[in-house]
User: Fold this.
Amino acid sequence: MERAHRAKLLRRFKPQLKRARVIRLDIPDDDAFMQPELVALLEKKAGSFLWRPSPARGNGAGSPASAFDVPAGYHPSPGL
Assistant:
């Protein structure tokens, strides 16, 4: 997320983000959606911040994300 993206996000969702922590990773918006180099960079920079449910536990406990899973049919919405 670039500085401008963070500012736009905060303007648009200020009430919802009142108690949230927004982390800017300083990754330029130069790569294609799900480009392998981008995914590797995101995993390196954001992996420690991401959690996903662990199906093995079944109790809602999370485990660090090892990959960015994208639901089938998902396409990024332009102009966040």
In short: The longest strand covers residues 51-53. Confidence is low (pLDDT under 50) at residues 57-67. The helical segments are 3-12, 36-46.
